[in-house]
Structures are given as structure tokens and as C-alpha cells.
Amino acid sequence: MDVAHHATATEVARRLSGRLSDEVVAVVQSWFAAGEHGLAVAALVLNLQAEGVAVTTQEAALVRALAAEDPSTADLARADLALADLAPPPAYRFSPTGPPEAPDPTPVDRVLAAEAPPLGARRVRRAWRDPLPEAPNRPTWVHLVQVAAGVDELSVLGTLAARVWVRTQQRWPLDVIADGGLLPPYHAAAVTAAQQVWAAP
């Protein structure tokens, strides 16, 4: 996958976070990061259809461009996708603290604070996510790792997700976002509510 298509894959995954199920987004991101383009595109398109997630015309064009790049997924470039005039507002409420029954996030905080800086991170944040009735995902902690512009977001995400799992056996949403970019509504809401875990001096 060339640089332009890698950037497209990063953008598509970022836009669909919170709209597709967390598990699907994580799988799609990990396969793109590993160079498994065909598997990533197939999982993306088929789960957009299975979960009934509507995309904007611009988002549909990005998905179709990814599918058309690989002969193994060329047919998926013509797949029927539900369309929406605008991307939906976030189907979640975010807050800096979780309820009393929330799992302890500090083990993951410590892993990310130690492992993210060498990968180009500038800041680590954490927020509690409560779903509204129409949301596809459960209540959980969300960690957001902000990296310098130009850092490979998908690669950093794959590395950190693996290290968090090895060190804590925890899996909850982890998002990597670059400095200076316009955030989708989901990430903008999460960043606004989040508390800071670590920041570069």
C-alpha cells in the first residue's frame, strides 16, 4: 500500500471510530498496519453493511478507493453502502472520570505513559465513554494518544495495542491522533472531556 492509500486507510478508520463496533475498527486498523490490505478492506465493507452504518458520499468514495486498489477486493468497490448527508454526531457522552464500578485504568495509563513517548507521542489522555441508546458500543474507558504530525498513526496504534495487551491483558478502545489535524466529532468530544495522563515536557 503506497503512502496515499495508507493515509486514506488512516482517515477512514479515524472517521468510523465510534460508529462501527470497537472490535471491527481495531481489526481493520491492525490489518492495515500489518499490510493485510485485502483482509482490512473486506472486514471494513462487510461490517459496514452488516452493522448498517451509513457513510457520507465522501467517506464512501474513500472506502471504494481502498477497495479498488487491490484486485482481491475490486468487487467490493461496487458494494452497496448506506449513505447519509452528514456524518452523525457522537452517540456517546464522555467524562473525565468513570463510575465506581469502572475497571481501574491506571495499569493501562502506566503502559502508555512508558511506551508511547519513544513512538512519537506528545500526550496521552483518557476519558470514560457512556453510550447513548443508538450507539453500537458499550461503556468503557477510551485512551487517546496524540502524536507529532507525520508519525504513522496506524503503526503506533498497532504497537501500543499489542504492548497494552501483553502487559495488562486489557482491551479497550485506543485511538492515535496526529497534531494539527481536524478531528472527527467522536474524537473531538472525547479529547474535550478527557483527563491528561501524560504529556511531553
Keywords for this entry:
5-stranded mixed beta sheet, Beta Polymerase, domain 2, 2 domains, globular, 5 strands, 201 residues
Structural account:
The structure is a single chain. With 201 residues, the chain is of the alpha+beta class. It has 2 domains: 3-78, no CATH class; 92-199, Beta Polymerase, domain 2. The protein contains 7 helices and 5 strands; from the N terminus they run H-H-H-H-E-H-E-E-H-E-H-E. The protein has helices spanning 3-16, 22-33, 37-51, 57-69, 106-115, 153-168, 185-193, and strands at 92-95, 121-131, 140-147, 174-178, 195-199. Helix 6 links the parallel strand 3 and strand 4 (174-178). The protein starts with a helix and ends with a strand.
Provide a quick synopsis of the model.
The protein is an alpha+beta fold and 201 residues long. The protein has helices at 3-16, 22-33, 37-51, 57-69, 106-115, 153-168, 185-193, and strands at 92-95, 121-131, 140-147, 174-178, 195-199.
Please give the CATH architecture of the largest domain: 2-Layer Sandwich
For the record, the CATH class of the largest domain is Alpha Beta
- Please summarize the sheet with the most strands: 5 strands, mixed
Query: What number is the mean pLDDT?
Result: 95
Sequence of secondary-structure elements: HHHHEHEEHEHE
| CATH fold title of the largest domain | Beta Polymerase, domain 2
Q: Which structural category fits the helices and strands? A: alpha+beta
Number of helices: 7
Q: Tell me the count of domains.
A: 2
Strand content: 15-25%
Q: Measured on Cα atoms, how large is the radius of gyration?
A: 16 Å
